[in-house]
């Protein structure tokens, strides 16, 4: 900023006026980035780029939201005695960037909580149907950011959206209560999943930042919410939203997360719902935590019983009038099409004459399961079977259907279609069985959970870990029904949803638990504790299953594994990182000084005499990338250097490694590390191969340090860059 200006906001205004007299500033950012947002013509944007002091001009981007058994499933009932008796974690503040909040929910009851933490700087903004009295000692802050949305999408009206922190969608209320909801006895959805619902950090405080309006989260609003959360002094930021992975210097959310990290705030994000395909993981910046999704040990069985007596298990949250016990005619939607898209039951795609009075089998794809059911119902159908296609595998997501319906896996779908094609007069009926717990195996990686490797930096393994993300019961708004559809007039206090949107706040809340016990730990140390104590196998030693393949999962699917909050509170050793460590990574990636300044919001010059390496980043996982050798022969070697910090009593740790590719050799030096309390020790891992890559070009393994009590685990991925 030139010295003639007293404040950067005045400087920004001056720059704007030199470009256009008519345009208005939307936001001036104080923390998340050094910059502002506005609306310009393409010509004005080009002119702005040429101005002195402007590092980058980037077009607006739209993100999307990535949509009571879990505390018991995760073992949180075992660790109450670990927390300080004085506050039970109540001084930790979780900031939720989402669609707002339904403050009347019992999940935000503040009974038993002490005064609001003295370091809190936020506020409770008033607006449509929302006053300062809607906040309390639990919901300590609520703000909304709409300027970017209104410029991009048009004015917000109270018919569709509340111009306030109030949640019109339900997604934000759901995620906030997963992270930090107070305990609510008797929580359920239509009697399903009945029990006590409570958040991961049920004594933590909640601050809500409404940056999403329906299914659109405009980047300028997200950055304003992030900017405010940093200023308000939250300890954890939970963001169940995402967009396609891009380079770090053009990923504004990643840039804002860097600023949060520098203030000691851990940023937890959804990994995305575009699995099971590789290179789809989102929110991949190494200073953020990226969370994939797994199942829990509960489902909602709904059986498809065929006229020949065969029985196929599915899931459903249907609560209405059941079908008659007598068999009903059964038809495949692809054979009852009136228009294109009939097989997936798109709007107006079915022939009422062929569908009326029948159960219809619809393939997954295009529209939601509930929408397919409405298409069937409007065409006169009595019920629906929602059939997984191959990419869905055996993953079953329960939905609150508006007609009798059951979702079945790919194997069952194939058998049902075979019955439909081989039987002259096929019939079926649907039987609903409520809630069932103790399902095994669990967890299983969900098919929708986005997968690694990172397409930007494959040496940094993403996602970091997985957490519960399927059929999760949590609080809901009373402004829409559980399906979020206009035709759904039902109103509920709790809803059951699935997505990495649900797994993210689980990890956010657990990070808040760790923060409450170790308030001086850095975001990197907290993430390390969650990652190195995560489990990638069941009790019998078998790898966690992937529902897309029904085979063993890999670190591209689960990262370090499934989060284990009990173990995370006693990790033994952690991998720590500072802001400069991340900037050294950017030097290794050959970022220019201007590119680094965009991320760091300050000058940082790479040392021309220093050899920077991506493999030196002190990350709790190993992404090994073998590059082609120019000569075409000889051994290929990749070295990773790491430093461990002892956060427990003095002790000696021994290393062990496993890898599913015999042609790659792993050497760890030293192989034994002895620590005093709070001591740091470094080691080097050398990966060597002289053979051609395997047909898959990928391999996976694990590195573990153990003192006989603590196991400090890290996943390994190996790939060949062709």
Automatic annotation (TrEMBL):
InterPro entries: PA_domain, Peptidase_S8/S53_dom, Peptidase_S8/S53_dom_sf, Peptidase_S8_Ser-AS, Peptidase_S8_subtilisin-rel, Peptidases_S8_3, S8pro/Inhibitor_I9, S8pro/Inhibitor_I9_sf. GO terms for cellular component: apoplast. This is Subtilisin-like protease. It is found in: Secreted, Extracellular space, Apoplast. GO terms for biological process: proteolysis; response to symbiotic bacterium; response to symbiotic fungus. Residues 616-718 form the Subtilisin-like protease fibronectin type-III domain. It comes from Cajanus cajan (Pigeon pea). Residues 89-542 form the Peptidase S8/S53 domain. Its main location: secreted.
């Amino acid at each position: 900023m030139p010295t003639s200006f007293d404040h950067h906001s005045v400087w920004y205004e001056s720059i704007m006026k030199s470009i256009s007299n008519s345009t208005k500033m939307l936001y001036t950012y104080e923390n998340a980035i050094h910059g502002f947002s506005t609306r310009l013509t393409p010509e004005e944007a080009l002119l702005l780029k040429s101005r002195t002091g402007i590092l980058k001009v980037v077009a607006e981007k739209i993100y999307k939201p990535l949509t009571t058994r879990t505390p018991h499933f995760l073992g949180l009932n075992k660790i109450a005695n670990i927390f300080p008796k004085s506050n039970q974690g109540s001084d930790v503040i979780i900031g939720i960037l989402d669609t707002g909040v339904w403050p009347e929910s019992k999940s935000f009851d503040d009974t038993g909580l002490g005064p609001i933490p003295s370091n809190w700087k936020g506020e409770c903004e008033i607006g449509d149907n929302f006053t300062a009295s809607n906040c309390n000692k639990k919901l300590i802050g609520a703000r909304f950011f709409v300027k970017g949305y209104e410029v991009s999408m048009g004015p917000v009206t109270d018919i569709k959206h509340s111009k306030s922190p109030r949640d019109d969608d339900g997604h934000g209320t759901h995620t906030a209560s997963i992270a930090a909801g107070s305990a609510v006895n008797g929580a359920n959805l239509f009697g399903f999943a009945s029990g006590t619902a409570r958040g991961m950090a049920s004594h933590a405080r909640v601050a809500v930042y409404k940056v999403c309006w329906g299914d659109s989260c405009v980047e300028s609003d997200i950055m304003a919410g992030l900017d405010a959360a940093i200023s308000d002094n939250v300890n954890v930021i939970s963001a169940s939203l995402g967009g396609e992975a891009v380079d770090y210097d053009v990923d504004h959310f990643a840039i804002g997360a860097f600023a949060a990290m520098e203030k000691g705030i851990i940023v937890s994000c959804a990994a995305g719902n575009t699995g099971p395909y590789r290179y789809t993981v989102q929110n991949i910046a190494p200073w953020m935590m990226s969370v994939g999704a797994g199942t829990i040990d509960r489902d909602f069985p709904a059986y498809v019983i065929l006229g020949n007596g065969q029985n196929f298990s599915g899931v459903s949250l249907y609560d209405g009038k059941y079908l008659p016990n007598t068999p009903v005619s059964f038809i495949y939607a692809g054979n009852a099409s009136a228009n294109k898209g009939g097989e997936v039951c798109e709007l107006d795609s079915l022939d009422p004459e062929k569908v009326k009075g029948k159960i219809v089998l619809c393939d997954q794809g295009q529209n939601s399961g509930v929408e397919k059911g409405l298409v069937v119902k409007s065409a006169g159908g009595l019920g629906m079977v929602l059939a997984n296609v191959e990419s869905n595998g055996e993953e079953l997501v329960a939905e609150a259907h508006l007609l009798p319906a059951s979702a079945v896996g790919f194997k069952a779908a194939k058998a049902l279609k075979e019955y439909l094609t081989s039987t002259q007069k096929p019939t079926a009926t649907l039987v609903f069985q409520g809630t069932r717990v103790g399902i095994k195996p669990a967890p299983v990686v969900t098919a929708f959970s986005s997968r690694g490797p990172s397409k930007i930096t494959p040496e940094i393994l993403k996602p970091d870990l997985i957490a519960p993300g399927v059929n999760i019961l949590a609080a809901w708004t009373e402004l829409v029904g559980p399906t979020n559809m206009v035709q759904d007039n039902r109103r509920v206090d709790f809803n059951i949803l699935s997505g990495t949107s649900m797994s993210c706040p689980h990890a956010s809340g657990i990070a808040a638990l760790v923060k409450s016990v170790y308030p001086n730990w850095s975001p990197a140390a907290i993430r390390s504790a969650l990652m190195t104590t995560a489990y990638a196998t069941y009790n019998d030693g078998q790898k966690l299953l992937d529902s897309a393949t029904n085979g063993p999962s890999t670190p591209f699917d689960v990262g370090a594994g499934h989060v284990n909050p009990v173990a995370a509170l006693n990790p033994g050793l952690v991998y720590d990182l500072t802001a400069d460590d991340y900037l050294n990574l950017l030097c290794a990636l050959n970022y220019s000084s201007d590119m680094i300044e965009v991320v760091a919001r300050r000058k940082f010059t790479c040392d021309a005499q220093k050899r920077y390496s991506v493999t030196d980043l002190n990350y709790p996982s190993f992404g090994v990338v073998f590059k082609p050798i120019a000569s075409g022969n000889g051994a290929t070697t990749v070295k990773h250097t790491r430093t461990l910090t002892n956060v427990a009593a003095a002790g000696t740790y021994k290393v062990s490694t496993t890898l599913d590719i015999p042609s790659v050799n792993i050497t760890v030096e030293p192989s034994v590390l002895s620590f005093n309390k709070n001591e740091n020790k470094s080691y080097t891992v050398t990966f060597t191969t002289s053979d051609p890559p395997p047909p898959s070009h990928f391999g996976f393994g694990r590195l573990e340090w153990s003192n006989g009590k603590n196991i400090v685990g890290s996943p390994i991925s190996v790939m060949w860059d062709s």
